[in-house]
Amino acid sequence: MSPLLPGATLGVVGGGQLGRMFVLAARIMGYQTVVLDPDPASPAGLLADTHLKADYQDAVALLRMGGLCDAVTTEFENVPAAAMEMLAKHCRVAPSAAVLAVAQDRLLEKTRAREFGCDTAPFANIETEADLDAAWNLIGAPALLKTRRLGYDGKGQARVNSRAELLAAFAGMGRVPCLLEGFLPLEREVSVVLARNAADDVAFFPVAENQHRNGILDLSIVPARVPEDLADRARDMAVHLARGLDYVGVMAVEFFVLADGRIVFNEMAPRPHNSGHYTLDATACDQFQQQVRALCGLPLGDTRLLSPVVMVNILGDIWQPQPRWETLLKHPGVHLHLYGKAEARAGRKMGHYNCLAATPEAALTVALETRAALGIG
Ligand code: AMP
């Protein structure tokens, strides 16, 4: 397949912050951009050359998008497979509808991850109440009940310590298909963001160490504070999965690190990832430029880490009515990214910032000080 060069038109299904940063990267590199999102104020739509304000399943809008674009990607995994299939009749699409289907369902995701050599937490499928006993007998306490679909940032999951709690949690989730997962003693969490193009070139960004608060990513520390052989194993698992799925694009894989040194696959994201936002300022090529390169069939960019970095997420909780940006921006090593969302709500991702410093310790100190000064946490 010949590479798509600047001047070509790239589309993204979804208009959130990930779409916005893709649009920015594409425009900087000289591409035209199209966003499909029903929200007239969507962060990506505001910056695109063309914003198609329609639902992701709107056949007319999809036809228009397919006609305008040379290639289309997505910024979230829950795009209906049928939409990507429809687009694929008119232009290049990556990732494929088949890969999205895997990422949309925790059961498929964990099953495929195991097939391709990843260790996972023990899990059992629950489709109806009739499956509860067998699942409980297999997994036991402590466990996490997770909806198979549409869970993110810790939503759609509940900790259960008894069969009665499991029953109640399953009812609370509306008896939708779920997974019961063994609750593991996590030492830390890490993620691998990689890119693969159609020629099977693969590039890894440095492994990030991720800390969550209330189920939402709070900090990413890079380089991750793990031994190099552990980072190698995480990269190996991630690339096996990417190749096994014939994945094209940028992909993130989240892993748990256990006290005994095991690394356990948690989930994959078929797109750039919040834990890769540090690359916007700290690697030679960032994850969104890389998404453009992978989508366009270009050689992948240099993922070298240029500086130790800590990324801090900014949620809507601290808008009272505006965060005190001066306490943040007085630090010369801080790079602020805001997503252009007009309305701040608790738990809503409004932006992030990257703290760059000469040493990992110094970057973490700036991150923690500025976080406290902004009133985060
Ligand atoms: P998830 O939505 O699956 O990414 O889960 C959100 C967060 O819950 C993870 O980042 C972990 O901190 C925690 N978590 C998820 N699954 C497990 C598990 N099996 N054992 C322990 N903690 C977990």
Write the layout of secondary structure elements.
Blueprint: E1 9-13, H1 17-28, E2 32-36, E3 50-52, H2 59-68, E4 71-74, H3 81-88, E5 92-93, H4 97-103, H5 106-115, E6 123-126, H6 132-139, E7 143-147, E8 157-160, H7 163-172, E9 178-182, E10 186-196, E11 202-204, E12 208-213, E13 216-222, H8 228-244, E14 249-258, E15 263-269, H9 279-282, H10 287-296, E16 309-315, H11 325-329, E17 334-338, E18 349-356, H12 360-374
Parallel strand pairs: 1-2, 1-4, 2-3, 4-5
Antiparallel strand pairs: 6-9, 7-8, 7-9, 10-11, 10-12, 10-14, 12-13, 13-16, 14-15, 16-18, 17-18
Helix pairs in contact: 1-10, 2-3, 3-4
The protein binds adenosine monophosphate.
Adenosine monophosphate is lined by residues 121, 144, 151, 154, 181-184, 186, 189, 212, 215, 266-267.
Question: How would you portray this structure in words?
Answer:
- This protein is α+β, with helices and mostly antiparallel strands and 377 residues long.
- It folds into three domains: 9-93, Rossmann fold, CATH 3.40.50; 122-182, Dna Ligase, domain 1 (2-Layer Sandwich); 186-374, ATP-grasp fold, B domain (D-amino Acid Aminotransferase, Chain A, domain 1, 2-Layer Sandwich), CATH 3.30.470.20.
- 31% of the residues lie in helices and 27% in strands.
- It has twelve helices and 18 strands.
- It has helices spanning 17-28, 59-68, 81-88, 97-103, 106-115, 132-139, 163-172, 228-244, 279-282, 287-296, 325-329, 360-374; strands at residues 9-13, 32-36, 50-52, 71-74, 92-93, 123-126, 143-147, 157-160, 178-182, 186-196, 202-204, 208-213, 216-222, 249-258, 263-269, 309-315, 334-338, 349-356.
- Helix 2 crosses helix 3 (81-88) and helix 3 packs antiparallel against helix 4 (97-103).
- It is globular and about 60 Å long.
- The chain binds adenosine monophosphate (AMP).
- Adenosine monophosphate binds next to strand 9, strand 10 and strand 15.
- Residues 121, 144, 151, 154, 181-184, 186, 189, 212, 215, 266-267 line the site of adenosine monophosphate (AMP).
